[in-house]
Amino acid sequence: DAMVIQNPRYQVTQFGKPVTLSCSQTLNHNVMYWYQQKSSQAPKLLFHYYDKDFNNEADTPDNFQSRRPNTSFCFLDIRSPGLGDAAMYLCATSRGLLDGYTFGSGTRLTVV
Amino acid sequence: GESVGLHLPTLSVQEGDNSIINCAYSNSASDYFIWYKQESGKGPQFIIDIRSNMDKRQGQRVTVLLNKTVKHLSLQIAATQPGDSAVYFCAENAGNNRKLIWGLGTSLAVNP
User: Is there a contact between B42 and A55 if contact means CB atoms under 8 Å apart?
Assistant: First the structure.
């Protein structure tokens, strides 16, 4: 029944070692988002795809990249994770930009 | 119990009481508002939304009130239950890029 699925739920990576987080959706939504959420804070938008169009937030570090090979899947690549990148990473989808979001359960990233 | 937006991030209520969580939004051009519930270790979950052409909308045990004059949004939870314990975020959708702007969140604790 899960509609937005994030894998893995928990990810431990070494400082500086590239890591990829994945998100898939069964909703056929046009828009997919990646958010970073640190403890006791609101989610912070990193970027989103509207179909194949990539939209990066101005303050998203270059260290963060994303790929959307098809409608169902979207990946978050962190090229050189630093200790400050430890956070919950949330994927969300929406039908359009004016619609509500459906979130996945998130991936908790730990950098050691 | 009542929370006054950003200055009171924690709300504690007795089981069975009604809860009111408040949110002051920033953009007078915002025309779509959403309340999310986030339990510990999980992604945000959609609760209820409202568009700017309405001032009240009811769901199951929840009501959202919108006061555009003072840019205020509130979430009312009737007969609060322990399962309602979570952080509640309001979000507004505005601007040409239609991004969600998130409030800081209010932590709701329900005492048995």
Answer: no
